[in-house]
Specification:
The complex is a heterodimer of chains A (275) and B (496).
Chain A lengths: L23 E2 L6 E3 L6 H20 L2 H17 L1 H12 L3 H21 L3 H5 L1 E2 L6 E9 L2 E5 L7 H12 L3 E5 L6 H10 L9 E4 L3 H10 L5 E3 L7 H8 L5 E3 L7 H5 L2 E9 L3
Parallel strand pairs in A: 5-6, 5-8, 6-7, 8-9
Antiparallel strand pairs in A: 1-2, 3-4, 4-10
Helix pairs in contact in A: 2-4, 3-4, 3-7, 4-6, 8-9
Chain B lengths: L27 E3 L2 E3 L6 E6 L4 E7 L3 H19 L4 H17 L1 H12 L3 H20 L19 E5 L5 H14 L3 E5 L6 H12 L7 E3 L4 H9 L5 E5 L2 H12 L5 E4 L5 E4 L5 H13 L11 E5 L3 H12 L20 H16 L3 E3 L15 E4 L6 H4 L6 E7 L2 H9 L6 E5 L3 H10 L4 E4 L18 E2 L29
Parallel strand pairs in B: 5-6, 5-8, 6-7, 8-9, 10-11, 10-15, 11-14, 13-14, 15-16
Antiparallel strand pairs in B: 1-2, 3-4, 9-17, 12-13
Helix pairs in contact in B: 2-4, 3-4, 4-5, 9-10
Classes of the chains: A alpha/beta (275), B alpha/beta (496).
């Protein structure tokens, strides 16, 4: 039986309000794999609103709790390994062993970033020695809502690489899935929906990048962007992002704690010392 | 006390102007030498407290910037990038020491050029500027421990534009970390306050800093715009208004050049009912009247818990009546001159809007000098969050007072702004301070204090107050590249 691939907004799986979908074929053939939703500007706005409202829940969860939830995503993916492998093989026309490797790496990546949730503050924070009687410390905080551009030439790994750092830093996300390989993103949302991730923390849109990119880049309630996975219209994205001074992270396909920190702001707190 | 004679009044205690010799005109500082501007243009700089012309400053043009950027490039490639960190550090230590030796001169010059009280330049601006050089000197040979990987590298030539509110201090915030991390610099001081930067140029000569490592190109907005547009600059750092910061970021969007932005603010200063009121009153005064309110992180929105509002305002007014406004060169002066006629107009315009929109203004009945640019310390009560004086940065000695009932409401109001530079919170309850500090969306939180600065303390904004930090370990990172950061890959164990 074929599956209907829908959007993932605020913990639910709606079709696009525009009623549109677009065909995904097996790579290099005319065999129809699925017709995922083609998200509209309105869907994107709904996703941003959901992410905005979910901020409090995600940010006020303890880092230990967030860590366990991201780890839970890895556990749930493991249970649906076969489905991920088959989808990657079909979409990207890859061999089973290559697809299996991609799924394994994606699972490992969730585990790696899950562990950072309660450590990133320790490697990047500071207790600052002040020239006077003050206690002064610096710690990183999430910036808020991050728009994530998944890598366009990857089904699963490039998606996880792009979204996991933003989440590990305590941000909520609106993810634009790969236009050509969107099926793994929706299957991942089905995993997320059963991993104790609060509704709205992760929102995933499938559709046409050229339609969605300017709206995501210019949305005034989006606080940051990870454009590592987007190779086109980068100047336009950066220009639009300037309107509310979105933080823009650009790390290619690298994996590093700096990628988490690029989507966090450092807060410094002072208090006098005295009797 | 009789009507005319106050036996407790302060006698005048003027600092000596003779401590500084100001030249009739200044050249640009390029490649280790003072050179006449190719543009052949000069403009006057005045003392805002007297409107007396102090000197003529060069207006750097495109050709001058070309020379400066070329000199910085040459210095980077041939000398500065090859020097071991230890040796770079020695230059910075030397600069700090030379500045200490001439600290009093710097203080007088800054007060004459900027209009801020000598007490502030002497006790805050100059010592902090020196601390920045001393602090960063020690980082120069320890960069591999700064957190950007084992082999951090400089960008190359850094373009820097600084504001007029803390002229030498902002220079130090920009130049010290740039040099410590191995970059070379082209700096443009603010149009109205170039003199201490030019005295700093002399310090660079006296420290025998290799020519071209620091270049100072004075000028106006057009000079700054040419620097931003210059292809030879690898990284940019700007402190100033959010509007200009956005324009700079748009210009640099196509190049993807890294940029640090320290922009405007509309800092909330929250006083809870359980605060130590007298300390809070001092903190409120320090928060808004320090440096005539020409402070991007000023506590310009006072949020008071409703039940203590009247009591607090009464105490605040009594305290403000004691503020001594006048001659910045007098060691007893608390509030000096507004930096320029233009800025004074802006303050007047915004305060008028406050009265038109229905807020209630209060000012002490203090005398103001007849010449120069002055504005009395002002507090507005009956302010609503929609008023312009509650939303826009006034950058002057004007406080807007709002009230709240619950802690949640205080945070909501405090965060209801596109800015996020700094905030204050006053309470005697530790858990409430930490809760409020966590909830406030701002880069610097002063709990039971306000407007404190230190070279070791990172400073910078959330949201539209900019990004990047200055000061502390965090302040080094924007001046180092990520390119050499080792790519960490999660280990790939054998899966079963």
């Amino acid at each position: 039986m074929k599956k209907t691939y829908k959007l993932f907004i605020n913990g639910a799986f709606p079709r696009s309000e525009s009623g549109r979908s677009y065909p995904i074929y097996r790579k290099g053939s005319k065999v129809l794999l699925a017709q995922p939703a083609q998200a509209s500007r309105k869907d994107l706005r709904d996703a941003v609103r959901a992410a905005r409202e979910a901020r409090l829940k995600w940010q006020s969860a303890t880092a230990y709790n967030r860590s366990q939830i991201l780890y839970r995503i890895a556990e749930m993916m493991e249970g649906r390994r076969l489905q991920f492998v088959e989808e990657i093989m079909a979409q990207a026309s890859l061999t089973k062993s290559v697809a299996e490797k991609e799924v394994s790496e994606a699972i490992d990546l969730w585990v790696w970033y899950a562990g950072w949730c309660d450590k990133v503050g320790q490697i990047s924070g500071a207790n600052n020695p002040i020239n006077g009687p003050f206690y002064n410390f610096t710690s990183p905080e999430p910036i808020g809502v991050v728009g994530v551009f998944a890598e366009s030439d990857s089904s699963l790994l490039g998606l996880v690489r792009a979204m996991a750092p933003a989440l590990a830093g305590g941000n909520t996300v609106v993810v634009l899935a790969s236009e050509r390989y969107p099926l793994s993103a929706i299957t991942l949302s089905e995993v997320i929906a059963t991993s104790d991730v609060p509704a709205g923390v992760i929102n995933i849109l499938t559709g046409i990048r050229n339609e969605l990119t300017p709206w995501l880049a210019s949305h005034m309630e989006v606080d940051g962007l990870d454009i590592s996975g987007e190779k086109s219209r980068r100047v336009e994205i950066r220009t639009l992002a300037t309107e509310n001074l979105k933080r823009v992270a650009d790390f290619g396909s690298s994996t590093s704690p700096n990628r988490i920190l690029a989507l966090m702001d450092q807060k410094t707190i002072w208090h006098p010392i005295g009797i | 006390m009789t009507e005319n004679v106050n036996p407790f009044a302060y006698a005048p205690a003027p600092e000596s102007r003779e401590l500084v010799s100001i030249e009739t005109s200044y050249d640009l500082f390029i490649n280790g030498k003072f050179v006449a501007p190719k543009s052949k243009k000069r403009f006057v700089t005045i003392n805002p407290a007297t409107e007396e012309v102090l000197s003529k400053i060069s207006l750097g043009g495109k050709d001058d910037l070309d020379l400066a950027v070329k000199a910085a490039r040459r210095a980077y490639e041939s000398v500065w990038s090859k020097l071991p960190g230890k040796e770079r550090g020695k230059y910075l230590y030397r600069i700090a020491r030379l500045m200490q030796e001439r600290a009093r001169e710097f203080a007088v010059l800054e007060t004459l050029d900027n209009g801020k009280p000598i007490r502030e330049t002497r006790d805050t601006d100059i010592p902090l500027a020196i601390q920045h050089f001393f602090y960063h000197a020690g980082w120069a040979d320890k960069l591999e421990f700064a957190g950007n990987g084992a082999n951090p590298r400089a960008h190359g030539v850094v373009g820097q534009i600084i504001p007029w509110n803390f002229p030498l201090l902002m220079l130090a915030w920009k130049v010290a970390p740039a040099l410590a991390t191995g970059n070379t610099v082209v700096l443009k001081p603010a149009e109205t306050t170039s003199l201490t930067a030019l005295l700093f140029a002399q310090i660079c000569i006296d420290a025998e800093l290799p020519p071209g490592v620091v270049n100072i190109v004075t000028g106006d907005g057009s000079t700054g715009a040419s620097l931003v547009a210059h292809n030879g600059v690898d990284k940019f750092a700007f402190t100033g208004s959010t509007e200009v910061g956005k324009a700079i970021n748009r210009l640099l969007a196509s190049s993807g050049k890294p940029v640090t932005l320290e922009l405007g603010g509309k800092g909330a200063n929250i006083v809870f009912e359980d605060a130590a009121i007298d300390q809070a009153v001092e903190g409120i005064v320090q928060g808004i009247f320090f440096n005539q309110g020409h402070v991007c992180c000023a506590g310009s929105r006072l949020l008071v818990q409703e039940n203590i509002h009247d009591h607090l305002i009464e105490k605040l007014e009594r305290r403000i009546e004691k503020i001594r406004v006048g001659d910045p060169m007098d060691k007893n002066t608390d509030l000096g001159a507004i930096n320029s006629k233009e800025q004074l107009q802006k303050i007047i315009e915004l305060t008028q809007s406050g009265e038109i929109e229905g807020a209630k203004a209060w000012q002490p009945d203090c005398a103001l000098p007849s010449r120069g640019f002055w504005f009395r310390p002002t507090i507005f009560t009956n302010v609503s969050g929609a008023h312009r004086i509650a939303r826009e940065e006034i950058f002057g000695p004007v406080l807007s007072v709002l009230t709240f009932r619950t802690p949640q409401e205080a945070i909501e109001k405090a965060n209801n702004t596109p800015y996020g530079l700094a905030a204050g919170v006053w309470s005697e309850k530790g858990s409430r301070l930490l809760w409020a500090s966590r909830e406030l969306k701002a880069g610097v939180i002063w709990a039971n204090t306000y407007n404190k600065f230190d070279a070791a303390s990172p400073f910078g904004g959330y949201k539209e107050s900019g990004w990047g930090r200055e000061g502390g370990r965090h302040g080094l990172l924007p001046y180092l590249t990520h390119s050499s950061t080792p790519r960490v890959k999660p280990s790939k164990g054998v899966r079963k």
